[in-house]
TrEMBL record:
Organism: Chironomus thummi (Midge)
Entries under PROSITE patterns matching the protein: RT_POL
Listed name of the protein: Reverse transcriptase homolog protein
Record gene name: reverse transcriptase homolog
Domain Reverse transcriptase, chain residue ranges per copy: 490-760
Source domain of life: Eukaryota
Keywords on record: Nucleotidyltransferase, RNA-directed DNA polymerase, Transferase
Length: 883
C-alpha cells in the first residue's frame, strides 16, 4: 500500500463535449496528480469510444434518449473505489463512486448535471426529490457538477428556480463554490455566473480545502479541491505476467524430471485419495518449476502522449481563453476557436500516426491484431452494480454471490418430478447396474495417445484454479508425460474422475446488447483444469469409437460431429422446402428451443441410455463420476463467491459435454419422427404436403410425440421462443386457418423465422436473410474501420485476415444453402464484398472486380457457394430423410 499522499485530489468540470478534449484532459489529470475527476456534459453515447489512460479508469453514464448531456467519473486506478448503483433521479444525471480511503474512512463522490432549460414545473416536481436521493447517503459525500443553479449566495447576478430550491435546502448540506465565476457564456451579452458547485454534508469528519477555479478548458472552468485525511491506502497498479516466450524450458524440464520417480508410469493407485494426492503433487511440481524457470515481466499499457508542440499550443490556448474571459473580445474569441481547431487537427494526426505505427508492427501471425479487433468491436467496460428482485449488489463479493446463485438456478430442472414411475425405473436400473463389480478391464491409455492430445491443445486457453496452462503442459519432460499416463490410467482403473478437476472457476461475461445491471445479462464461462481435459479427451476417444462402431447418433443430428456443421442442416431444410415448392407442395415447420439444454441434462437418464447402448461398464462408471458432485464458484476481480453444487446438467466448458448431450437425445428420432432436424439442442420439425390441413394434422401429431418424449426425459421446451413457419406459394385463402397448438398454447404462423442463424421466409427467397446479414456486416465494418481503413499502414495481409475472419463470414454464413436465392439477392452480397475489398486494398471503384478478387485471393460469393455446397452435399445427402 502506498500511503504517502495524504489527500484525495478532486476536480470537477463541465466539458461541453469530451471526445475531442479527452487526450489533453487525461494528460492534464496525470500532470496535476488528480485522483478523481467528475465530468458533466460529456455528449457521449453508449457506443462512443474515447481515449484512455493506463493510470485511470473511466465510469460513464451516457444520455441515450436525446442529444448531449451525460456524466462521467475518471478515477485513478490505485484508489480503491466502487461504482454505486443508479440513484434513480428524474431530472438530474448522476453517477457516483464510493472511495475507500483507509480502514476507517470512506466517502461518496458524485458527478451530477442538471440540464439547462428544465421546465419550472418539472423543477418544482422533481428537483427536491432528486437532491434528497443523492444526499441521502451514509457517511461523507461530495456531490460535484453543473447544477445550472443561480443564486446571489454564490455570487450570481440573479437567482433562478433551481438556485432558489438549492438554497432553501441548504440547511441539510453545505454548498461550496469558488470565489471566481465558473461559467463564461459564448454570448458576451450574457453574464458570467457560478453554477458549478459542490455539495457536502455538514457533519463530514473529513477536511476539505477551498474550491479553486483552475484551467478553463471549455466555456466552464474546472474546479479543484482536496479531501484531507491522515492516511490513504492505495493499491498496486502495476501488472505483471509470466514471460513464456523467454522461459528457460531446459531448466523447467530438468527440475520436474528430478522430482518424478523413474518407474512412476509402471505403477497405479489403489484408492481415489491417492489419485487426488498425485494430482496435487504434479500440479505443485509444475508451478514450482514455472516460478523458477519463467520470469515475470511488467505489462506496459500503451497510450498516446502529447508532443511538446501540442502541449505548447494547449498552453497558448488556455492563456488566450483566460484573456478572452477577462475582456470578452470577439477577436480573441475568433483566435481561440481557430487555435482549438488547429489543436484538434494536430491531435488527430498524432493519434493516426501512433495508430499506424502500432499496426505496421503487427505480423499476420501475431495474436495482437485479434485483441485489437476484439476491442474495436466490443470495447472495455466495468461491471456496474447489479440488481435483481429489488436487491442491489455493489461489491465484487456481492456481485459474485448473486451471479453464482443465478447460475446455480439454471441447473435446476423444473421437470424433476415428472413421470415418477419412469423416473423410479431409470434410477433403479442405473443403480443396480453401476453397483456391480467390474468384470471388464478398461481400455488404458499410453504416452503416444497423451502426447497426441497435448499437441492439439491451444496455447491461449485460460487455465483453471490450479493455474497450469497448456503452454506448461506442452513443455513437460518425458517423465511428466509418464506421470500423466500413470494418473489417467489410475482414474480409468478405479472409474474415478478426480474431485479437484470437477470444480470450476466461473467468469461472468456480459451478453452483447443486454443491460449490464441485470443478472440475466451475463453468461458463465467455466475455467476447468487444463490437465483434466487430457483425461476428458481420453474418455472422448473411447466414447466416439463406440458411437461410430455402432452407428448410434442419427443422421439427423449434425451438432458436434466430425465433418458436419450448421451448413449441412440448413442445406437439408432449405433444399427440401424449395423442392416441395417446385412440386406444388407446402411445408410447415416448427422451430423448438430447448431451455437450458446442457444445464439441465438428467444424469440418471443419460447413464440409463449409455447402459442401453452397451457402452463398456467401466466407461459408464467413469462418466458417472465425471458428472457427479460438480461445483463452481464465480470470480470477479479477486473475489470468489461461495461454492455452489450442480445437480443437473453436463458441465459448461468440458470437452465431453456436447457428445454426452448427443447421447442423451440420440433416440429422439426413433421415438418421434424422421422429419426432424437437429443441431445439438436446436430442433426443427417439418412436414410437406399439398393440403395445408394435412400439414397441420401431421405437425400436431408429431408435436405431441415430441412433448411426450421431452417430458419423459425431463427436457424443458421454451414456449416463448417456439416459432412456426408455413412455406408456400399458395394464396392466403389456402393457408392454414388456425394457429398450430403446441405446449398447450396457440403458436401463430410467422412469415419468417430464424433457424441456426439464418432467416428463412415463407417463400424461401432468403431476401430477409440478405437484409439481416447486410446490416450486420455494415455494423462490423463500422466497428473495425479503424483497423482496415484506406489510409492506415496496417499490413494488407492483416487487413485481409481481419476481413476474411471477422466480416466476410457474416454474409457468407450458410452460403451452401444459397442455391434457392435469386440472383438479385446474391448480387447484393457480391456488391457488399466488392465494396469491402476496395476499402481493404485501397482501390478505386474503377478497378476490375475480377482483379480485386485475384489480388485478395478471395473467391466471389457464387464461387464460395459452389465450393461449400459441393463439400456439404455428400454429408447432407447422407442425412437426408424420406418422408
Amino acid at each position: 500500500m502506498d500511503c504517502r499522499q495524504q489527500s484525495i485530489n478532486v476536480l470537477y468540470w463541465n466539458a461541453n463535449g469530451l471526445t475531442d478534449k479527452m487526450l489533453a484532459f487525461l494528460d492534464y489529470l496525470s500532470k496535476q496528480n488528480v485522483d478523481v475527476a467528475c465530468i458533466s456534459e460529456t455528449f457521449l453515447k453508449p457506443n462512443s469510444k474515447i481515449d484512455s489512460h493506463p493510470d485511470y479508469v473511466i465510469h460513464r453514464l451516457d444520455r441515450v434518449d436525446r442529444p448531449k448531456g451525460g456524466v462521467a467519473i475518471i478515477v485513478k486506478r490505485n484508489l480503491k473505489h466502487q461504482l454505486q448503483p443508479s440513484y434513480n433521479t428524474k431530472l438530474m444525471e448522476c453517477i457516483g463512486i464510493k472511495v475507500f480511503i483507509n480502514d476507517t474512512d470512506s466517502c461518496h463522490i458524485l458527478s451530477v448535471y442538471l440540464p439547462r432549460g428544465s421546465k419550472g414545473g418539472e423543477i418544482d416536481l422533481h428537483l427536491r426529490d432528486d437532491i434528497n436521493k443523492i444526499t441521502n447517503l451514509r457517511g461523507n459525500y461530495y456531490i460535484c457538477g453543473d447544477f445550472n443553479a443561480k443564486h446571489r449566495e454564490w455570487n450570481c447576478n440573479v437567482a433562478n428556480k433551481s438556485g432558489n430550491i438549492l438554497q432553501e435546502m441548504s440547511g441539510e448540506f453545505v454548498i461550496y463554490f469558488p470565489d471566481s465565476p465558473t461559467y463564461y457564456p459564448e454570448d458576451r451579452n450574457k453574464s458570467v455566473s457560478t453554477i458549478d458547485l459542490m455539495l457536502s454534508n455538514s457533519n463530514s469528519n473529513l477536511e476539505t480545502t477551498e474550491l479553486q477555479c483552475t484551467e478553463a478548458m471549455s466555456d466552464h472552468c474546472a474546479v479543484y479541491f482536496q479531501i484531507k485525511t491522515s492516511k490513504i491506502d492505495r493499491t498496486e497498479n502495476t501488472v505483471y505476467r509470466y514471460d513464456y516466450k523467454n522461459a528457460n524450458w531446459k531448466k523447467f524440464k530438468a527440475q520436474i524430471s528430478r522430482r518424478i520417480e523413474d518407474n512412476i508410469g509402471e505403477n497405479s493407485c489403489n484408492t481415489t485419495d491417492e489419485i487426488e494426492n498425485h494430482i496435487k503433487i504434479l500440479s505443485e511440481l509444475i508451478m514450482e518449476a514455472r516460478n523458477s524457470s519463467v520470469k515475470m515481466k511488467k505489462i506496459k499499457f500503451e497510450s498516446t502522449k502529447l508532443t511538446p508542440e501540442i502541449k505548447d499550443l494547449i498552453n497558448t490556448k488556455r492563456s488566450l481563453r483566460r484573456r478572452w474571459q477577462r475582456s470578452r473580445d470577439n477577436q480573441l474569441k475568433s483566435e481561440l476557436n481557430y487555435l482549438q481547431r488547429v489543436i484538434n487537427e494536430k491531435i488527430k494526426e498524432l493519434k493516426n500516426k501512433n495508430w499506424n505505427k502500432r499496426l505496421s508492427e503487427i505480423q499476420p501471425s501475431n495474436q495482437t491484431v485479434w485483441r485489437i479487433a476484439k476491442f474495436c468491436k466490443k470495447g472495455s467496460k466495468t461491471m456496474p452494480p447489479l440488481t435483481n428482485s429489488g436487491k442491489t449488489f455493489i461489491t465484487n463479493k456481492e456481485k459474485a454471490s448473486a451471479l453464482s446463485e443465478y447460475f446455480r438456478e439454471a441447473h435446476e430442472n423444473p421437470l424433476e418430478q415428472n413421470d415418477p414411475q419412469h423416473t423410479q425405473e431409470v434410477n433403479n436400473t442405473v443403480k443396480e447396474a453401476l453397483e456391480q463389480d467390474n468384470d471388464e478391464n478398461p481400455e488404458l491409455t499410453d504416452v503416444n495417445e497423451i502426447v497426441s492430445i497435448i499437441r492439439n491443445l491451444k496455447n491461449p486457453k485460460a487455465p483453471g484454479l490450479d493455474e497450469v496452462n497448456n503452454i506448461l503442459i506442452k513443455n513437460l519432460p518425458e517423465k511428466g508425460f509418464e506421470y500423466l499416463k500413470f494418473i489417467i490410467n489410475s482414474c480409468l482403473k478405479l472409474n474415478h474422475f478426480p474431485k479437484v478437476w470437477k470444480h470450476a472457476k466461473v467468469i461472468p461475461i456480459p451478453k452483447h446488447g443486454k443491460p449490464a445491471s441485470e443478472l440475466s445479462s451475463y453468461r458463465p464461462i467455466s475455467l476447468l483444469s487444463s490437465i483434466s481435459k487430457i483425461l476428458e479427451r481420453v474418455l472422448l476417444n473411447r466414447i466416439n469409437d463406440h458411437l461410430e462402431d455402432n452407428n448410434i447418433i442419427p443422421n439427423q443430428q449434425c451438432g458436434f460431429r466430425t465433418g458436419r456443421s450448421t451448413s449441412h442442416q440448413l442445406i437439408k431444410v432449405i433444399k427440401s422446402a424449395k423442392e416441395n415448392l417446385n412440386n406444388k407442395k407446402s411445408t410447415g415447420m416448427i422451430f423448438l428451443d430447448v431451455e437450458k439444454a446442457f444445464d439441465r441434462v438428467w444424469h440418471p437418464g443419460l447413464l440409463y441410455k449409455m447402459l442401453k447402448l452397451r457402452f463398456p461398464l467401466p466407461l459408464i462408471k467413469t462418466v458417472r463420476s465425471f458428472l457427479s458432485e460438480r461445483s463452481f464458484a464465480v470470480f470477479i476481480k479477486g473475489q470468489f463467491s461461495e461454492i455452489k453444487v450442480i445437480k443437473f446438467g453436463v458441465p459448461q466448458g468440458a470437452v465431453l459435454s456436447p457428445t454426452l448431450y448427443n447421447i442423451f437425445t440420440y433416440d429422439v428420432v426413433r421415438e418421434t419422427t424422421n422429419n426432424i432436424g437437429l443441431f445439438a439442442d436446436d430442433t426443427a420439425l417439418y412436414h410437406s404436403a399439398e393440403n395445408s390441413a394435412d400439414i397441420v394434422t401431421h405437425l400436431q401429431h408429431t408435436g405431441r410425440k415430441v412433448q411426450q418424449y421431452m417430458n419423459k426425459w425431463k427436457i424443458n421446451l421454451n414456449k416463448q421462443k417456439t416459432q412456426a413457419l408455413f412455406i408456400t406459394n399458395r394464396h392466403s385463402r389456402q393457408l392454414p386457418g388456425n394457429n398450430i397448438k403446441f405446449l398447450n398454447e396457440n403458436i401463430k404462423w410467422e412469415t419468417e423465422a430464424k433457424y441456426l442463424g439464418m432467416v428463412i421466409d415463407n417463400r424461401v427467397t432468403l431476401k430477409p436473410h440478405v437484409e439481416y446479414v447486410t446490416n450486420r456486416a455494415h455494423t462490423a465494418l463500422r466497428q473495425l474501420y479503424p483497423l482496415i481503413s484506406r489510409n492506415l499502414q496496417l499490413d494488407v495481409r492483416n487487413k485481409l485476415l481481419i476481413y476474411k475472419l471477422a466480416i466476410r463470414p457474416i454474409f457468407t454464413y450458410g452460403c451452401s444453402a444459397f442455391g434457392s436465392m435469386a440472383k438479385t439477392h446474391l448480387q447484393k452480397l457480391q456488391v457488399l464484398q466488392n465494396k469491402f475489398l476496395r476499402i481493404v486494398l485501397n482501390k478505386t471503384r474503377y478497378e476490375r472486380i475480377t482483379d480485386l478478387h485475384t489480388e485478395a485471393k478471395i473467391p466471389s460469393i457464387e464461387g464460395s457457394r459452389r465450393k461449400v455446397a459441393s463439400e456439404s452435399s455428400t454429408v447432407s445427402l447422407a442425412s437426408q430423410n424420406t418422408e
